[in-house]
Write a structure and sequence with these properties.
With 394 residues, the chain is mainly β. The protein is 7% helix and 46% strand. The strands form six sheets. Strands 1, 2, 7, 8, 9 and 10 form a six-stranded mixed beta sheet that branches. A six-stranded antiparallel beta sheet has the order 3-13-12-25-26-14, with no helix packed on it. A six-stranded mixed beta barrel has the order 16-17-24-18-23-22. The two termini are 30 Å apart.
Length: 394
């Protein structure tokens, strides 16, 4: 999510789609839980993140190549972690997405996609919500197909719920949780599930006695870089719904102070989705007959990260998990996991195993134990984690 932090209408609503009375369907690439498409600008193809929770972004190389001049007005942007940044605005004459042509739309220029770990995805910019304002969008996660249309579509088998638009322009829908409405941004630019930064919902989750996990350390990254949060609290929400018709048995929700309320592909992929931006309706068709039932992820209770100096290291640890009850400490260099040598792991290897490998990093998801060799202050530490150590409360 990469949003304008303004309460007034901005030039980001500007732009024109040349085609009328059309329905365009195209495949998208799903990598690391994110959607990517190919667009054409100035006769060159670029890979863009398809992000309903963000504005459009182009690489700064295009500004120089096309000799674009900044507009007089600029904006302050805010990412999903609440980090603000001043950004210049530009008008891009033309962008082609398949058979569709967008002209004279306003965008910002940024090279955030070159920063680690976003550089793992090798993309150039963002196809954001300002392209979609007067259209209907359909997403088929199973077939990996996107449809954009300005025609009426058949949603008789879908369940409808209202959309509203935040002051920054992003579309939001509501969960009904313990008789309260949690409005969340529809955000295909996130590869995780539900997030809130509102203290009143943290208090509600505590009042409802939802199970909780507290994770300390480096939690995640966003468009402005690695986050500055030292911890995140994750609650296992129970028995909530959408439009009082789609029941959800359980699903984790992360609370990070000042973060934006949002829901990403980890949750959205459970549905066929149709978003009518013009009529302000979200249509959802569950892929399974049974209510969604997800539990806490990361059962061993630690996450890993990479940098040039340390290579692979322990980045965070979750309370009351095997990792928490072991010798592991944040910052420990990981030498091997289940005999997989990580001593000299390079960036591209980390990218592969962290985002694109079919298993969870270096071990299979069904693994019940992990043998880890760590290095701390020049000495080696061997540790075995087993899921039997997990606290019964989780």
């Amino acid at each position: 999510m990469f949003l304008p932090f303004l309460q007034k209408k901005t030039p980001l609503q500007a732009g024109k789609l040349q085609e009328k009375n059309f329905s365009f369907t195209t495949p998208f690439t799903l990598k690391g839980g994110l959607l990517f498409i190919d667009v054409q600008i100035d006769e060159r193809t670029y890979k863009f993140l398809f992000d309903t929770g963000a504005m459009s972004v182009i690489p700064t190389s295009l500004v120089h190549k096309l000799q674009l001049s900044p507009l007089k007005e600029s904006i302050c942007t805010v990412d999903a972690d609440g980090v603000e940044k001043h950004s210049l605005l530009y008008t891009l004459p033309t962008l082609h997405f398949g058979e569709l042509t967008f002209t004279n739309f306003t965008t910002i220029a940024d090279d955030f996609s070159e920063h680690f770990p976003l550089c793992c995805f090798h993309f150039h910019g963002i196809f954001g919500y300002n392209f979609l304002q007067n259209l209907t969008l359909k997403i088929d996660y199973e077939k990996k197909l996107l449809t954009l249309t300005d025609r009426a579509i058949n949603t008789t088998s879908y369940i409808k719920t209202p959309l509203r638009f935040a002051k920054n322009g992003v579309a939001e829908f509501a969960f009904s949780i313990a008789k309260k409405k949690l409005w969340v941004a529809l955000d295909t630019g996130k590869n995780d599930g539900i997030m809130t930064g509102e203290k009143k919902f943290k208090e509600l989750f505590t009042k409802e006695a939802y199970k909780q996990q507290r994770t300390t350390g480096l939690i995640s990254s966003s468009f402005h870089g690695l986050n500055e949060h030292s911890f995140v609290e994750t609650y296992l929400l129970k028995d909530f719904s959408i439009a009082n018709k789609i029941s959800i048995d359980s699903f984790p929700c992360s609370y990070e102070k000042n973060s934006l309320n949002s829901v990403g592909n980890e949750f959205l992929r459970n549905f066929h989705i149709a978003v009518d931006f013009k009529k302000k309706h979200l249509h959802l068709k569950p892929l399974h007959k049974e209510p969604i039932k997800e539990v806490f992820t990361n059962p061993f209770g630690f996450s890993m990260f990479w940098n040039e100096e340390q290579k692979l290291y322990i980045a965070s640890i979750t309370q009351d998990t095997p990792a928490y009850n072991s010798k592991l400490k944040i910052g420990d260099k990981i030498m091997s996991i289940n005999d997989f040598d990580t001593l000299n792991l390079e960036k591209e290897e980390y990218c592969h195993y962290a985002f694109f490998y079919e298993h969870t990093m270096f071990y299979k998801r069904e693994a019940k134990s992990l043998d880890i060799i760590l290095k701390r202050e020049g000495r080696l530490i061997r540790e075995t984690l087993t899921l039997e150590q997990t606290s019964p409360s989780l």
